[in-house]
Design goal:
This protein is an alpha/beta fold. The chain contains 13 helices and five strands.
């Protein structure tokens, strides 16, 4: 696959010029994990939170919202790219109401996965519960907008699904009980089956325009590099994890084709961040980065959530030089570059 390298700011400006026309979808509706959680975990009892400084220091007003980044995350950029608001609020955030959620809402929960057992690890919201919140949202939307208008919003909105990394890194490769039940290939098939059931459920509730997100090269996350005592593929990445991610993405891509053929009216795309993310890690200077092996926050080797707080003296001063914000999550700049790529090559179908 060939890539055209250009400074990230130039990419952004080009993207904005192309896409700031009238909104082509009425709302962005988000399901998933910390890659897209706008702050739902703030409202539940879990150790996995980020609603404190320095998280959010580059967000609007320098406000920590519960997003696992120094600033915005992909749904925010996608919403803005479709001519909607510049950020998508969390459904459980008491600051917002159905008026705000009518043009975009996030049900995601950091730490969750396709597998219900994954959400149990850090006591977060399981995927089935995200669907229950979505059903509740539909009721409120109909009461607010009326049946006809609400039905249009439900069927015409773009649904973003980004989930799966935790199933492998926080579940399969961490819990002996999961490994004893499945081979890696069997577990991938189990997750794909769960993904299929989930997509069919929200399709049954009215969703038609869906972006199913793939996994990043998860073996290159700073946390995995730090614990990779066996070396790696020359750059410290855990290659076997990257292979698993790439294989799983292949199965998800096949699922997208299958469901597009089976479900009438379905317009589903596969948004795969793997290759552009891999290019950023391999050639960071081409995208304006200086540091890729460690994260900005704290020592950048293993910290995230409460280990990444404002009292840590090692946190970097300029996150735009770093690919990763904490040991598990990208910086705002990385999120924007990956989102711009997906908008131009995949999501443009809905523009």
């Amino acid at each position: 696959m060939a890539y055209i390298y250009m400074p990230w700011l130039m990419m952004s400006q080009l993207f904005i010029l192309v896409t700031t026309s009238a909104a082509k979808v009425p709302a962005i509706i988000v399901f998933g994990d910390s890659s897209v959680d706008a702050g739902n975990n703030n409202q539940i009892s879990t150790p996995l939170k980020s609603n404190f400084e320095p998280y959010g220091r580059d967000f609007f007003g320098g406000r920590p919202t519960g997003r696992f980044s120094n600033g915005r995350i992909p749904p925010d950029f996608i919403s803005e790219g479709f001519g909607l608001k510049p950020s998508v609020p969390a459904y459980l955030d008491p600051m917002y109401s159905i008026k705000d959620f009518a043009t975009g809402v996030c049900f995601a929960s950091a730490g969750t996965g396709y597998d219900n057992a994954t959400s149990n690890v850090l006591r977060v919201i399981p995927l089935w519960k995200e669907v229950e919140y979505y059903k509740d949202y539909q009721k409120k939307l109909r009461a607010y907008m009326g049946e006809k208008k609400a039905s249009e919003v439900i069927s015409e909105s773009l649904y973003l699904i980004s989930i799966g990394t935790n199933d492998f890194l926080e579940n399969y490769y961490t819990l002996p009980s999961t490994q004893s039940r499945y081979s890696v290939d069997q577990y991938q098939n189990f997750l794909v089956g769960t993904a299929e059931s989930f997509v069919k459920e929200i399709y049954g509730l009215g969703a038609r325009k869906i972006s199913l997100g793939g996994l990043p090269p998860m073996g290159c996350l700073p946390l995995e590099r730090t614990t990779n005592f066996m070396g790696g593929n020359g750059n410290g990445c855990v290659e076997r994890y990257n292979i698993v991610a790439a294989n799983f993405n292949g199965k998800l891509s096949g699922l997208v084709q299958k469901l597009n053929n089976e479900l009438p009216g379905m317009q589903m795309v596969f948004s795969n961040p793997y290759y552009v993310f891999q290019q950023i890690v391999r050639k960071p200077s081409a995208y304006g980065f200086e540091v890729t092996a460690v994260a900005c926050c704290a020592t950048g080797m293993f910290e995230m959530s409460y280990m990444c707080d404002r009292y840590n003296p090692f946190t970097c001063t300029d996150a735009s030089k770093y690919v990763f914000w904490d040991s598990f999550h990208p910086t705002e700049k990385t999120n924007q570059i990956i989102t711009d790529h997906l908008m131009k090559h995949v999501l443009r179908k809905f523009l």
